[in-house]
Amino acid sequence: MKVEVLTPRGPAYQAEADELRAPGVMGELGILPGHVPLLAALRTGVLLLIRGAAEHPFAIGAGYMEVGLADRVLVLTEACLGPSQIDLATAQRELDDTTAQLARWDRELDAEWLELENRRAWADARVETKTGEYHNGGIGARAAPNLPESPPNPAF
């Protein structure tokens, strides 16, 4: 399959892949050659591209994925970083800090809480991409203790 990952700054990745695993908002998406066309919303997490026996992880922000005809996959995302672009110490510090702040949250869930959760998710994706400790597409591989539940999605 031809896979393209595009960010607002331009192309982040363009290559062939045998399999793609993406963090969809409703769960992990697995894409193989010949997949039916689809459009899916993505959450911040780890995008895993597999070619032969090699796995290529990327930390991605929220976005969309289109699986088109002729085995073409297009990922549109806010941000995309490969392992070599990630400073593990900084990402781990941000993950620890945001997780601690969320664990101490004692107010109503609001825009500030959502921004903090988004920062935690981005830090988590970077740590998982850099260390290779990812499961099921990334985010949620390590459960953060005592975090408040997300507000319900009004679309469901």
Describe the structure.
By secondary structure, this protein is α+β, with helices and mostly antiparallel strands. It has a domain of 80 residues: ATP Synthase, domain 1. The chain has two helices and ten strands. It has a five-stranded mixed β-sheet, with no helix packed on it. A hairpin with a 2-residue loop joins β3 and β4. α1 packs antiparallel against α2. The longest helix is centred in the C-terminal third of the chain and has 21 residues. The protein is globular and about 50 Å long.
- In CATH terms, what is the architecture of the domain at 2-81? Sandwich
End-to-end distance: 33 Å
Rg calc? 16 Å
User: Major beta sheet, specifics?
Assistant: 5 strands, mixed
Order of helices and strands: EEEEEEEEEEHH
Percent of sequence in beta strands = 35-45%
Structural class: alpha+beta
Mean pLDDT: 88
Quantity of strands, as a count: 10
| The first-level CATH class name of the domain at 2-81 | Mainly Beta
Overall body shape: globular
Number of helices: 2
Write out the strand line-up for the largest beta sheet, numbering strands in chain order.
2-1-9-8-5
Specify the helix fraction band. Answer: 10-25%
CATH superfamily annotation of the domain at 2-81: F0F1 ATP synthase delta/epsilon subunit, N-terminal
Using brief descriptors, characterize the structure shown:
ATP Synthase, domain 1; single chain; 10 strands; alpha+beta; about 35% strand; globular; about 160 residues; 2 helices; five-stranded antiparallel sheet; five-stranded mixed sheet
